[in-house]
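Dear support,

Our group has been running a series of protein-ligand predictions, and this particular one with adenosine-5'-triphosphate is the one our PI (initials K.S.) wants archived with full inputs and outputs. We had some confusion internally about which version of the output was final, so please treat the block below as the authoritative record. The input we submitted was:
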Amino acid sequence: MPSQHHAQTHPIHLARQHFFERGAVQDGLISPLIERSWQRCYDDGLLPEACGRDARLSQVEFRDVRDRSSALLESARPQLDSLYAQIQNTHCAVLMADNQGTILHGVGDADFVPQARRVELMPGGVWSETARGTNAIGTAAREAKPVVVHAGEHYLDQNGFLTCAAVPIFDPKGRVLGVLDISSDAHHPQHHTLALVNLAVSMIENQLLEHECQNAHLLFFHPDAHLLGGLYEGIVAYDDDGRILGCNRWARHHLDIQPGHDADHQLTDFFDTSDRDPARFRELRSVAGDTFHARHREQARPSQTVPAKPTRSPSTSALADLSLGDPMVDKCIQQAGRVLGRDVPILLQGETGVGKEVWAQALHRSSPKSGAPFVVVNCAAIPETLIEAELFGYRGGAFTGADKKGAPGRLLEAHGGTLFLDEIGDMPLALQTRLLRVLQERQVVPVGGGPARKVDFDLISATNSDLDSAVRNGAFRRDLYYRINGLRLNLPPLRERLDFNALVNKILEEEAATGLTDAVKHLFSQHPWPGNLRQLRSVIHTAALLAEPGEPIDLEHLPAGFVEESHQNDDGQGSLAEAEADAIRQALAGQNGNMSAAARQLGIDRSTLYRKLKQMNGKEPHT
Ligand SMILES: Nc1ncnc2c1ncn2[C@@H]1O[C@H](COP(=O)(O)OP(=O)(O)OP(=O)(O)O)[C@@H](O)[C@H]1O
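Confirmed final output from the archive:
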């Protein structure tokens, strides 16, 4: 096969010439591993002047792939960040791929990333050997070995500008789970990169082992007592019967186990002892005759009565997870934490889309009632005539159209758990009286009569209207207001949150988006966000689908009307309420008056849009 590379003296050029023109390479010009890989690519029919095949995933495929690798991404994240911090500003990028060579995560220097993107060396790019010929990621995955691929060792001509060092990441059973890589421009070769990547991978693998074998015994060992406790110690996880559940790469190295061959073994297959629990000894001998120094650790085991550590229970973390650094939010979390489980009704107050329902769920999950039902009733979404039956239930045939068997009602469904009354300000006055009675007497009588049933639930209510003024003008019962307002949490609007950037990053991650261009970052920081977190999520969700995999969200990906909404704010034209009203009018005009489509575009609920329109029309003269 002819190659673009003609007679040249550099060993790699010579090797390419030999390989592509004569079909064999003179000994010593390139490593046997690279030659093996070239041969596979050649046999597979790949041409060196090609661009790669099936080499890029769609956004949807990419999202699926990332979801499947979420455990790996989670275990690896701290190491990815710290690895990049060590090599930053050296014209390179840190990349992590799954075992099929699809790049899941990438972070790199501004002077290298554009070059890398030209060949799709970025998240969403597929770098398997089949797709792109010999390359560090694909070849490391294929060979299950650390690999450096420099310049012309890349099979495809177009990748000859790269130098890359990649190390496979093994799961505790010794299967390749992914690949960690540092790539840079071949003009800036990095000398210690492979060692750095190896270290980071060791740490990721240990993290995976401890995470996946949470209830196991752990045996740590090393031939040198001074290196016990260091990064190169072997770790074996095993159960009560001495059966090996998994081990790290150094255990495989010290015990000479081939990756993938450590399952279905007993400790006694490798250590020379008849004791099933050899970890009781400080010194061990392997069956091959090597001596190791050892230590032992028992992981937390559910069956044992280990004194409870004052750790954060998984439940409280639901609430704590809402903290991203905003002082007002943190204060709410702290106050809520104090009253949870103490029969104090909580009232969540905040603009539409600030996350009141998300908070209600987190409060429920953090409470002692987290295992019981969480029942949501949106008082604005149910027609007035049906709220009563919905809440209190009804006897069979109690009213026209009612189910013959009757229904227990949402209050009874919440028995033992949490009732979340959303938009409580929209509850009709007559029903407020009935609800108050239930809260006082803790029993429910269904519509149409029947025996009273006892109910017990935690109550969380939410409103985006000003309940104080509703109480003053008689639209909301004062006694009910006191009853539901044991603790009021005022959730700040998005434009006032000091953790705005952290929130954006969290949503970008959840939506598998790559990032934002500087122009979009600037626009976001200026935007009034009338739809708050709901609008932010909906804008990022759509824009992430419109951007190519690995491409940051740019102005062109933002929904129509969004940029204009921001500019109105820039011009300083009028108040926020006016900006919001303008946005609503524009959305309705743009969607030919279709309420559902306009609400979707604005990132708010249809019922919220109705209410806002009512408010706008009440204030404004007809035009
Ligand atoms: N802490 C958060 N982190 C990320 N996204 C969030 C958060 N809180 C809310 N969101 C997003 O905003 C959307 C709206 O949240 P939610 O329904 O809880 O708001 P709300 O205040 O109850 O709105 P409304 O008053 O219109 O009923 C959620 O579906 C979620 O996508």
